[in-house]
Design brief:
Helix content is 24%, strand content 35%. It is an alpha+beta fold and 212 residues long.
Length: 212
């Protein structure tokens, strides 16, 4: 009888010990899960603060021209506006560059010079002049032209002119950094052309090839 009681006592003690071990394991698992969840929340919170809103948006395909922005001028009838476009070849090899005007009022834009070559890391400034001359019967107008810069990549800017009775200084400065893109981004597609467009770079009808 004593042996049976001793055996029963041993079984209870063993079960109590196993129950205690299991309980400790469950508590430890809960702590690990809570810790991982807290780390994940902190990581996502820091990520959202560092990258800012909209940073996960997929950019345009790599073959699309680069937008240099919009520029505006107010001129009196018969005046002219000026823009300086400084082009830098940031590549390690020489490149040919072509600058052309397009759009409804492209004929009013003069570009000096409109084509040249740049060696590695060299730069040059192009002067664009917008003529706001109007017919005697016209007193005000809205004029617009696109200016394209084509080297390894294609770049463009939009220049608008309001012609009227008031005028403000019109002398913009634009920097263009032209280089091939050797980085494969997560949002790239298989049809991306690298490192340069070469003979496929013809964003403006009649534009010459820009192979360097």
């Amino acid at each position: 009888m004593t042996k049976r009681k001793s055996a029963a006592t041993d079984v209870r003690q063993t079960m109590d010990a196993m129950s205690d071990v299991l309980s400790r394991q469950l508590d430890l698992s809960g702590d690990i899960v809570d810790s991982l969840a807290g780390s994940a929340r902190r990581f996502l919170s820091g990520l959202s603060q560092n990258v800012g809103p909209g940073s996960c948006e997929i950019p345009e395909p790599c073959w699309m021209p680069h937008d240099l922005g919009e520029y505006h001028c107010d001129l009196c009838k018969g005046s002219s506006g000026t823009m300086e476009i400084r082009i830098t070849n940031t590549d390690y090899r020489a490149r040919n560059f072509t600058i052309v005007a397009a759009g409804p009022d492209a004929g009013r834009v003069s570009l000096t010079p409109n084509s040249f070559s740049l060696g590695p890391k060299e730069r040059r400034t192009v002067t664009a002049r917008f003529d706001a001359a109007l017919d005697d019967t016209v007193h005000c107008a809205e004029l617009e032209a696109l200016i394209w810069v084509m080297g390894c990549n294609s770049h463009f800017l939009r220049w608008t002119i309001d012609v009227g009775k008031s005028e403000r200084a019109c002398c913009h400065h634009v920097d263009v950094f032209d280089q091939p893109d050797y980085v494969h981004h997560w949002y790239d597609h298989f049809y991306c052309v690298r490192p340069c467009f070469g003979k496929t770079a013809r964003p403006v009808p009649g534009a010459k090839d820009t192979v360097g």
